[in-house]
Amino acid sequence: MANVVDTRGELPFISAKRRSSAHVAPRPVGTVVKRSVDLVLAAFGILLLSPLLFLCCSALILFSPGPVLFRHRRVGFNGQTFDCLKFRTMAPDAAERLQRLLESDPAAAAEWKATRKLRADPRVTLLGAALRRSSLDELPQLFNVIRGDMSIVGPRPVTEEELARYAYKVDAYLACRPGITGLWQVSGRSTTTYRRRVACDAFYARNWSIVLDTKIMLATIPALFEDAAY
User: Fold this and answer.
1) What is residue 180's three-state secondary structure?
2) Residues 217, 52: Cα–Cα separation, whole Å
3) Residue of 168, 136, 175, 189 whose CA lies nearest to 4
4) 144 pLDDT more than 60
5) Are 160 and 173 in contact (CB under 8 A)?
6) What are residue 84's DSSP bridge partners?
7) Global pTM?
8) What percent of the chain has pLDDT over 90?
């Protein structure tokens, strides 16, 4: 699928400072206008998708013993951390499975180091794989939007460890609320590099507009189908 915005060229970044000396605006990108749209869309989404939320909860209770929700600590606007919500897609002993794989499989260890993802991830359950392919596992993040932790559109939420990979472009990430969808997600996330992901986030922070958000939201559904088929 064609990119919503061409970010192949040189991008204008917010700042070249490191995080320790980063100057981030006192309000996130988009301010009141973006936040108002977020609240309306998230509330409408929860209401419209409530049967699907219930179905996912029920399936996890019946077929995947363990907690229904997975809470993972992520970094948000201005470096504030929050619990990013997802439907649980991994086995209860996910950490141990990952450690065993990385210690025994050099190729998997290299893939994990480069992308923080694994194509053949031993931690993911069968039900979890279906939730991930359809992106239904991310529906609980609508509640993160209501709480103000996230936005409908924005950079992909990252961990403290991942944030270091943004290097001098970190201000771009910290200037935004992380998003359920974003420029990177609709620009071939299954095949793109982490470096391009950072470039997309920096471009978004610098060039935010309601028009850009609308383009990204409209491109999200076909991008989901494309990723599911990948």
Assistant:
1) strand
2) 20
3) 189
4) yes
5) no
6) 72
7) 0.81
8) 53
- Separation of alpha carbons 42 and 211, rounded Å: 18
Name the phi and psi angles at 75, rounded to 5. Answer: -100, 130
The rounded distance, in Å, linking the Cα atoms of 99 and 184 is 28
> Which residues, 6+ apart, have CB-to-CB distance to 179 below 8 Å?
150, 151, 152, 153, 154, 155, 156, 157
What residues contact 135, with CB distance under 8 A and at least 6 apart? Answer: 224, 227, 228
* Span 173-210, pLDDT tens digits: 999 999 999 998 888 766 667 888 899 999 999 999 99
Distance CA 71, CA 79 (A): 18
Residue 224 has φ and ψ, to the nearest 5°, of: -65, -45
Instruction: Measure the CA–CA gap between 15 and 168, rounded to whole angstroms.
Output: 7
CA distance 55 to 94: 24
> Which residues make beta-bridge pairs with 75?
81, 158
Q: How many other CB atoms sit within 10 Å of the CB of residue 166?
A: 22
- Give the dihedral sign, CA 108/128/215/84: negative
Residue 23 has pLDDT above 60, yes or no: no
Closest to 186 in 3D by CA, of 164, 203, 166:
203
pLDDT digits (tens, 9 = 90+) for 25-38: 578 888 899 999 99
